[in-house]
Design a protein that fits this description.
Length: about 400
Amino acid sequence: MDNFTFYSPTKFVFGSNTESQCGSLVKEFGGTKVLIVYGGGSVVRSGLLDKIKQSLSASSINYSELGGIVPNPKDDKVYEGIDICRNEKVDFVLAVGGGSAIDTAKAIAAGVPYDGDFWDFFSGKASVQKALPVATVLTIAAAGSEGSGNTVITKVDGMLKRGAGSDCLRPVFSILNPQLTVTLPAYQTACGAADIMAHVFERYFTNTRDVEITDRLCEAVLLTMINEVPKVIKHPDNYQARANIMWAGMVAHNNTVGVGRSHDWNSHGIEHELSALYDCAHGAGLAVIMPAWMTYVKNHDIMRFAQAAVRIWGCEMDFQNPENTAIEGITRFKNFLSSIGLPVTFKELGAKEEDIPLLVKNFGIGNGKTGGFVPLGKDDIEAIYRLAL
Ligand code: NZQ
Ligand code: ZN
């Protein structure tokens, strides 16, 4: 196991009706004027936004609002939010929604105290040193942004989807009420599930040896997803299954299961170009890319893929030819994704073969290589897109 520092200071408040504690929690963390950031209307329709406002008012906390954050959030709303915070002396940013609202809130929080253009954090020109405190009320188990220090934003000019991260962007608190996720359409639930599983696989496929504890934690999260997701696809109001998935989504990405080991993250990078170009759900793009990536890199460590097949997918080990076991595991993963209603090919996603050169160009690594498990160059990236056709 590698040396590591793990700092995860978020206070998680989990369970039914926990959103009513929002006002007192903001007060506990020193907020006096809040910017509420939310999406395209689901929290308005469900009545959640009103409940949050009531809870803030009951704790004598003033607020402004920034709604209309779209999935695969864009930079324009970040600039708008930074202006509101500066003009209205906002000292706390509260996201109510999914990864898109949360990531926008984080980018605003980082941008307010920064003199330059907030995009500098995403282009790599600067790193986030300080930020307004951010908190979340989560409505979809997916991106894991409620427990992570990461944010992903798309710059409209050039449709560049890029990430930034810092421990100071970890939410000070996150309210997780599984009941809030029952209104999710089955497709969004499935997309969230694919993202959660991808966050674990990005960590599971590692070159670090002797990582039994995190291997087993990864497997536990994946087995939970395999067990629980079909239940909520069938019965969206199954609270207990929603609860298990919601906590799995947090654990999958706050790095509990990834400390002390190298990660890969190429599937995420390859996917981000799909959701930037086609505006598809991130989880749907991952469902197309992950099995293709696995197929492409499996021979780098066939025994690790065989282990995944046996421990996660219940395959029988073929000791004569472990590659057969590895392939069977990847096939079962792909079938699972299909069974919960996700696309697993370019065609099913609505992506086009003729766009592959553009996707590779936008990936933007020139003649370099990237990835922590198997470093890949642009020809490899192209081959993976082609495997996903
Ligand atoms: O916008 P509204 O009306 O709220 O509708 C949303 C949106 O259409 C809807 N939704 C959310 N909760 C709902 C609901 N509909 C009914 N009932 C509810 N309870 O679901 C749709 C998707 O919402 P979004 O916030 O976009 O989903 P998600 O949480 O999957 O976030 C995706 C974004 O996060 C990024 C992705 O790239 C993508 O941009 N990621 C962020 C990460 C991070 N910050 O650590 C890591 C991830 O790997 C990922 O890249
Ligand atoms: Zn993801």
